[in-house]
């Protein structure tokens, strides 16, 4: 089957294999979105007089048939077809004849792939949003459930001040709010219709871009046709940063779990079937799931830099370099789905140790509490600090292991509803 850009000679097979690379396999993810984009484009071509209504019905019906094949998992790219756009146009031409050749009027493969990718990324962003919200809700529930369970807080990896499991779980919930803001930014960038920009310089056809924007469910369009093409790479980079921010939160959560599960801490536990053993040490309960989440998260945090380096030093307009974006971004999206799901699954089975602070080594957690108590009795802070410091040096310091923190966001006032409201406002952008 001839390529749609064929000029009458065959490309060297080695060059063709190198330039196509892994693109055909990755393009299968875009099949549904390419069909949806074509449906909107065809409808617009009727309005501007480049197709009649009978032709539209014939094309739309066949596109629905192809879409059904995609949804059933029966859609494939032929061995001699370069990409998803070529495959669908070839199928229409094979099944419908000359009518199938008319659908490309007023567009280029450049704006086709932009539409496909933006529709695909919007769908993935929605799914990531749902997964983040699911994890957020669980963290908030655990925060309330364990708000009275005290936990040592650390700075410089040294025992510092009293914390609580409520504070710890709630911290990760609120951190996800920040991550949702960056995901919403990626949504806003993706939610702009590039269809009609063609190869980056528009078309002499009187295209109705407002119509296709509404048909495809975009919030607005990329108006300037060159700017629309310059969105290739930027859209992926902004999403990659949002994904990296989520991964940063998951990385720290995983690291905490690995540490807290260690026998030296013993702050939390999991059912034995969620940990792994050793081939020679029968007592081991290794946190392999959290270790892999930690590693995958680190890999995801490198994604923005990889995409940035892949798309730098290029003038405006399309370059074949952009093809490689799919090879790094699409698998990374699957990784993020996986580690969000596994983090949620693991935390559903977490058990916390409610008796941590009975160990004498945590006595000094309460030095600041004692300093503050002296201040409340009228002693200047620096003098109170010296009094307690002297007791620590002499080994005579004792304190009641209780806290009385009432300000917003502290152990005794987690502000769970306020954080939930923040998340609601951050996530409502993505719809």
Helices and strands, with pairings:
Blueprint: H1 13-20, H2 23-27, H3 31-47, H4 53-72, H5 84-96, H6 109-145, E1 150-155, E2 158-164, H7 165-190, E3 192-193, H8 209-215, E4 220-221, H9 225-261, E5 268-269, H10 288-301, H11 303-310, H12 325-347, E6 351-352, H13 367-376, H14 381-394, H15 416-427
Parallel strand pairs: 3-4
Antiparallel strand pairs: 1-2, 5-6
Helix pairs in contact: 3-4, 3-6, 3-8, 4-5, 6-7, 6-9, 6-12, 6-15, 7-9, 7-15, 9-10, 9-11, 9-12, 10-12, 11-12, 13-14
Describe the overall structure:
With 431 residues, the chain is mostly helical. The protein has 15 helices and six strands. It has helices at residues 13-20, 23-27, 31-47, 53-72, 84-96, 109-145, 165-190, 209-215, 225-261, 288-301, 303-310, 325-347, 367-376, 381-394, 416-427; strands at 150-155, 158-164, 192-193, 220-221, 268-269, 351-352. It folds into three domains: 13-102, Fumarase/aspartase (N-terminal domain) (Fumarase C, Chain B, domain 1), CATH 1.10.275; 109-358 and 406-427, Fumarase C, Chain A, domain 2 (Up-down Bundle), CATH 1.20.200.10; 360-394, no CATH class. Helix content is 58%, strand content 5%. The strands form three sheets. The chain has a two-stranded antiparallel sheet. Helix 8 (209-215) links the parallel strand 3 (192-193) and strand 4 (220-221). Helix 6 (109-145) packs antiparallel against helix 7, helix 9 runs antiparallel to helix 10 (288-301) and helix 11 (303-310) packs antiparallel against helix 12.
Main attributes?
elongated, 6 strands, Fumarase C, Chain A, domain 2, mainly alpha, Fumarase C, Chain B, domain 1, 431 residues, two-stranded antiparallel ribbon, two-stranded parallel sheet
């Amino acid at each position: 089957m001839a390529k749609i850009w064929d000029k009458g000679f065959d490309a060297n097979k080695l060059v063709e294999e190198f330039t196509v690379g892994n693109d055909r396999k990755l393009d299968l993810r875009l099949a549904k979105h390419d069909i949806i984009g074509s449906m909107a484009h065809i409808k617009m071509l009727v309005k501007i007089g480049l197709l009649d209504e009978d032709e539209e019905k014939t094309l739309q019906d066949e596109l629905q048939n192809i879409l059904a094949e995609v949804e059933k998992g029966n859609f494939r790219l032929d061995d001699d077809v370069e990409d998803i756009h070529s495959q669908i146009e070839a199928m229409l031409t094979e099944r419908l004849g000359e009518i199938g050749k008319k659908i490309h009027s007023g567009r280029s493969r450049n704006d086709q792939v932009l539409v496909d990718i933006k529709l695909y990324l919007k769908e993935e962003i929605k799914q990531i949003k749902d997964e983040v919200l699911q994890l957020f809700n669980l963290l908030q529930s655990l925060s309330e459930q364990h708000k009275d369970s005290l936990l040592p807080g650390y700075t410089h990896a040294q025992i510092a001040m009293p914390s609580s499991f409520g504070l710890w779980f709630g911290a990760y919930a609120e951190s996800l709010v920040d991550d949702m803001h960056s995901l919403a930014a990626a949504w806003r960038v993706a939610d702009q219709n590039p269809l009609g920009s063609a190869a980056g310089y528009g078309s002499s056809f009187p295209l109705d871009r407002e119509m296709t924007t509404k048909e495809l469910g975009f919030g607005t369009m990329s108006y300037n046709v060159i700017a629309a093409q310059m969105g290739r790479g930027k859209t992926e980079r902004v999403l990659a940063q949002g994904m990296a921010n989520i991964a940063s939160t998951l990385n720290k959560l995983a690291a905490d779990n690995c540490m807290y599960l260690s026998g030296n801490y013993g702050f939390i536990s999991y059912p034995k079937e969620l940990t792994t053993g050793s081939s020679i040490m029968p007592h081991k309960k290794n946190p392999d799931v959290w270790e892999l989440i930690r590693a995958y998260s680190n890999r995801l945090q490198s994604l923005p830099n990889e995409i940035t380096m892949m798309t730098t030093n290029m003038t405006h307009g399309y370059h074949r370099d952009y093809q490689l974006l799919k090879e790094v971004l699409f698998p990374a999206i699957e990784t993020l789905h996986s580690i969000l799901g596994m983090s949620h699954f693991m935390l559903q089975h977490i058990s916390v140790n409610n008796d941590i602070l009975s160990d004498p080594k945590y006595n000094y957690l309460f030095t600041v509490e004692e300093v503050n108590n002296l201040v409340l009795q009228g002693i200047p802070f620096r003098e109170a600090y010296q009094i307690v410091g002297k007791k620590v040096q002499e080994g005579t310091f004792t304190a009641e292991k209780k806290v009385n923190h009432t300000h917003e966001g502290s152990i005794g006032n987690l502000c769970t509803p306020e954080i939930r409201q923040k998340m609601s406002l951050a996530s409502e952008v993505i719809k």
